[in-house]
Amino acid sequence: MTRLNLHLLTTVAAVALLAGCATTQAPLTEFTAGSGGPRAPEQLAVTFEKADLALRVDPATRSIRGDAALTFTANALATSPLTRIAVELDRNLPVDGASVDGVELARAAISNPDGRLYLTLPAPLAAGASTTVRIRYHGVPHVAKRAPWDGAFVWSKTEDGQPWIATTVEGEGCDLFWPCIDHPMGKAKLIDLHISVPAPLVVAGNGVAVGMDEQDGWRTYHWRAKNPSTYGIALNIGPYETLSGDYASRYGNTIPLRMWYLKGHERQAQGLFAEFAPMLDFFERRIGPYPFGDEKMGVVETPHLGMEHQTINAYGNGYLKSPYGYDWLLHHELSHEWFGNQMTNADWDDMWLHEGFGSYMQPLYLQWLRGEMAFQAELFNHRKSLRNKVPVVGGKPQRIEDVYDDKRGGPGNDIYTKGSLILHTLRNLIGDDAFFRATRRMVYGTDTPAPGNFQPRWSSTREFIAIASDVSGRDLGWFFDAYLYHAALPELVETRSGDQLRLAWKLNDGGPFPMPLEVRVVDDQGERSVRLPMTGGLGELTLAPGAHYTVDPASRVLRQQAHIDEWKRDEDERKKKKETAS
User: Fold this and answer.
1) Distance (Å, rounded) from C-alpha 111 to C-alpha 114?
2) What pLDDT shows up at residue 509?
3) What is the pLDDT of residues 518-528, one digit of tens each?
4) Domains in the chain, please, with CATH?
5) How far apart are CA 58 and CA 55, in angstroms?
6) pTM over 0.85, yes/no
7) How far apart are CA 149 and CA 159, in angstroms?
8) Nearest Cα to 117, choosing from 78, 70, 64?
9) Which residues have a Cβ under 8 Å from the Cβ of 370 and sit 6 or more positions away?
10) CA distance 179 to 118
């Protein structure tokens, strides 16, 4: 969203009430509840080649039955043979049996004490060799209380009482319904999904549809996806109807467009569907080719707000109209096809790369679509939301909830809006050409992406800093150090004495911050703009008597501003009084 900006959520929070909730359910282990912990040595020693997942979903009992065949190759440089395979699976989904290359394992070879499932191999796996483990399991999967803010299954009903089911597992991880490597770098190269549901329900899935079988009142839908992000694999089940079309990309390929919606929502769905092409045009021109053009751009109506599930973005915004004339949720989730699915953070500590870029794309799109007023208005919405309590990047491996949850010491919503404004400031510092070239290189691994010449990749904060520095031809360490690795914003100290205006940047740690500034001056001679290089963090300007000045009149530089801090304190105090009174 991932979890989406808090200031945006106020208009749609009621959607979360649609999420199903079990009256009683076994608690998740602490290990399973937090996605993205350190990978086991056995996971670091293999390449995840393929997942072949057959899953029977029974709405009547709210249960699932799974049969997963997972193929791994031992790393060619391994110094010793691999003796066991490790994957994650919620221990509340009991394993009925497991085999390795067709050889059934004894119960003693299967262990799942806390949510990490170990399978002892019948024979050690040599470097460069491959094996396929098959895991059969069943159970009542965890139920989300408030999807998508907490992850799991949503068992809902349509207005006419038919089953309407979805999964959203960004926070807790893919192991809530299938055995996987629950880490951003745990992607399988290929996944085949075979999802069985009672007829006449429909399954909208990741990747490409490869058929449907029906027998004994059950339908099995077959989907195939390449390099899917771990939390981007999702189940979407309901009595769906479909809109179809094609988008002629400026890169010469044709992208299938698909939308699954509920009966009775055709008019609204057609309105949303009409937004697909303009959004794709914006992203392809600003960033580069839609990354999954040989699969589809897909959207499915869901009983929760939304999530960037790869090629099948979840949409539960209720077709809400906006004064900007676009659907912000559709746009935000679509942005993650580039920032999240094509480029995936190497660790959850780098999550601002997903959310900061995804959030910055929205004011940029409004500038593209509506002009400067909408652009600046959305940037100011971002500015008002900042908390600045914790650095955006911690500089160490983290689990996802350690980043998203400010109660656990994470930056929370700042990875969205502060990330966006950091990128806006960077763009104005190094210029459009360097900024978008750096962005493309991070997303695609090349400055000149074209369909067929790139693969999904991982990136990190450190890599992006190196890319931006290389492309711009300057050392940007001071910039990212101030904005990403410190909570407090840079402060500008303004001193006016007679006809002299002195400006000085101040950081809490006293480090360098030579951020250039524009100053607008209005005096009896008229209005003019002066650019101060702020070498050494200092700048001076001579003003005529009675002259008025405005620092950074176009709001190009993110900085501490006392009037916003004062407003924020007042808002917080009013909120506390209201909560106390209620």
Assistant:
1) 9
2) 85
3) 999 999 999 99
4) 13-239 (2.60.40.1730), 282-290+319-484 (1.10.390.10), 491-557 (2.60.40)
5) 10
6) yes
7) 24
8) 70
9) 324, 325
10) 11
